[in-house]
Amino acid sequence: MAERAAEVSRGLLDTSVLIDHDLLEVGALPDESAIAAITLAELAAGPHATDDPEERSRRQDRLLWATATWSPLPFDEVAARAYGRVFAAVRSSGRSRSRLADLLIASTALAFDLPIYTRNADDFAGLGGLVEIVPI
């Protein structure tokens, strides 16, 4: 009897995972990973959000590493339509405040049918089962 191959895990990495990527256990990450264009935008803003030259350099290195490692998934027409569902789910859950970037990342995950791997699962609370959230 032939053995069945293990299922390959796939997932969209949240910005928090990229920031702490070198601190994470490899086994906690999906076998195949992607990032959203929104994550790349957050990483691009990172070096400008600190006055500490050492931290700025570290953030710039992280941005360069991410751009060399992944081609980001676009926030396209499908993701834009998914945003309406994501926004409605979060609002109906009673959450009054959500970061726009988190909602756009969730919309990208929904559009591409990928779970979100994150270090900040609370950022994605209230999605009503639209997107699987994998806390690491």
Outline:
This protein is of the alpha/beta class. It is built from 5 helices and 4 strands. Helices cover about 45% and strands about 10% of the residues.
| Quaternary | single chain
Give the ordered list of helices and strands: EHEHHHHEE
Shape: globular
Major β-sheet profile? 4 strands, parallel
Overall helicity = 40-55%
Task: Throw out a few tags for this protein.
single chain; 136 residues; alpha/beta; 4-stranded parallel sheet
Describe this structure as you would to a colleague.
- With 136 residues, the chain is α/β, with parallel strands linked by helices.
- Helix content is 43%, strand content 10%.
- It is built from five helices and four strands, in the order βαβααααββ.
- The protein has a four-stranded parallel β-sheet with strand order 2-1-3-4.
- Helix 1 links the parallel strand 1 (10-13) and strand 2.
- Helix 4 packs across helix 5 (100-111).
- The longest helix is centred in the middle third of the chain and has 17 residues, at 53-69.
- The termini are far apart.
- The model has no long low-confidence stretch (mean pLDDT 93).
Mind sketching the topology for me?
Layout: E1 10-13, H1 15-19, E2 32-34, H2 37-45, H3 53-69, H4 77-92, H5 100-111, E3 116-118, E4 133-135
